[in-house]
Amino acid sequence: MTRSSNHIVSHRALSYLCMGTVVSLALLQSGCKVAQPDPVPVVKQLPEQFSGIASQQDTGRLVFRELFPDQLLIALIDSALRNNADLNIAYQRITVAHAQLANRRRALLPSVDARIAASADRYGDYTLNGVGNFDTNLSPNIDKDQKIPVSPTTDYFIGLQSSWEIDLWGKLSSLRKAAQSDLLAQEQARRVLVTGIVSVMAQGYFELISLDNEISIVRRNITLQEEAVEIVKAQKAGGRATELAVQQFEAQLLNTRAIEQQLLQQRVQTQNQLNSVAGIYTRNIPRASVLPSGIPALQAGVPADLLLNRPDIMQSEFQLQSAALNVKAARAAFFPSLVINPYIALNAFTPSLLFNGGSVAWSAAGSLTAPLLNRRQIQTDFIMANAANKEMVFTYQQKLVEAFNEVSTNISAVQQAQNAFNMKSQEVQELKEAVQTARELYLTGYANYLEVITAQKNMLEAELQSVIQKNEIFTSLIKLYASLGGGWTNT
User: Fold this and answer.
1) CA 396, CA 408: separation in Å to the nearest integer?
2) SS3 for 426?
3) Which of 122, 254, 344, 420 satisfies CB 3.0 to 4.6 Å to 362 for a cystine?
4) If we measure between CA atoms, which residue out of 29, 33, 23, 22 comes closest to residue 373?
5) Which regions form coiled coils (predicted)?
């Protein structure tokens, strides 16, 4: 090839390089214009106050141990939090998130690898390396140690290699911050799970006490009904009652005994469910004999102060932060990346010369790489990141709405359950007196046996409903405690 033709080729290569540079810059400029984050929806402001709630005690300071200072209950919950499988799984997820965050942090730093390599190549006689090595060995400018082994040609490398991507556009730091937000979201997810376990154990604990009380009520009524059966049998023997009356009283007694069996099964089922949550095999759960008598008064409080402390709301906030940072990282992927690849090593083509001072080699290279053919994939990732970001905004907004309405519902539920229990207690007292009156009237002939049976039936139902209604107060309190953030602390 002539000198003139070489000049033409070099000129053409320079022209192609310049053209490629112009195209790359044009694409980069185009990418900067296209890759703009989508506007996200605006989150609606929370109302200033929960509506229709009387102000008596600040709900924002609900502490479980103050609401329910039952040491047996607290010990049961502590045991469940130690042994619950789902909670232990959540701890492992947090460990994974910690590892991912550490990995993202390391991405900002250069990586250094130790490398030991050896190779052997048999070059053909009509190849560039084959001819070049043969020709080099004939040069008078090299000594005997510099002669290259021809067949095969060996190469030995012992050294350190490094790679470092310079975070020019904040892509790596955005991914690190996103990983940190994901970690914080996982920790809030654990708090959500803790609150759920506390709520389930507390509700089940009070359900067990209620069932104990209901069984006691049923058994007391069984005793009274057994006495009534004996009385009516005696009256039948004396000619003052019929066989129909005896059958009706005995049928009522059998029905009440059947209710007892149902309640016993419910107690076994509830206890086993609690044992499953606590991660233990079947055991009898120690508990109080009666439901607590004191019920705290409540007030509304400021929604913004209360709801934003909920772990599920905080989890959604961190997920929202992570989604926004992922958009930023996806946008940065449109820009060129700068990577530095230095190394220092001992490098020689024969082992005997590897540790000679002349075998020390080093290199410092850098490359600026802009996306070209894979730009469509980057655009797809960017679109997906924007969609995920907007999805998280809608999710956050919906959680705020649900949380606000949940707190309002639970505060009202506590108050309505208290009112219903008070009225049911009065009803029970009236029906107890009615049973006594019906029996006295029956014995003196002023009432028939059906009136006695009806009075006994109504009293039993009202007593059972009274226990259920009182338990509903504590169920509503536990739901309110959970809707205000829950948690499990020593304060």
Assistant:
1) 19
2) helix
3) 344
4) 23
5) 414-470
Residue limits of CATH 2.20.200.10 in the chain: 111-166+336-369
Task: Please answer whether residues 73 and 202 qualify as being in contact, where contact means their C-beta atoms are separated by less than 8 angstroms.
Answer: yes
The ranges of the chain annotated as CATH 1.20.1600.10 are: 35-108+170-334+375-483
Q: How confident is the model over 417-442, as pLDDT tens digits? A: 999 999 999 999 999 999 999 988 98
Contacts of 50 (CB under 8 A, 6+ apart): 300, 301, 303, 404, 407, 408, 411
Secondary structure class of 298 (helix, strand, coil): coil
CATH number of 111-166+336-369: 2.20.200.10
Match 């606000």 to its residue by tokens.
404
Instruction: In whole angstroms, give the CA distance from residue 326 to residue 320.
Output: 10
Please tell me the pTM assigned to this model. Answer: 0.74
Residue 123 tokens, joined: 């070059």
Instruction: Answer whether CATH 1.20.1600.10 is correct for domain 35-108+170-334+375-483.
Output: yes
Q: DSSP alpha helices (H): ranges in 333-373?
A: none
Residues sharing a CB contact under 8 Å with residue 77, sequence separation 6 or more, in sequence order = 197, 198, 201, 202, 488
CA 376 – CA 57 distance, rounded (Å)? 59
**Amino acid at position 193, single letter:** L
| pLDDT tens, position by position, 445-463 | 888 888 889 999 999 999 9
Q: How far apart, in Å, do the first and last CA atoms of the chain sit?
A: 88
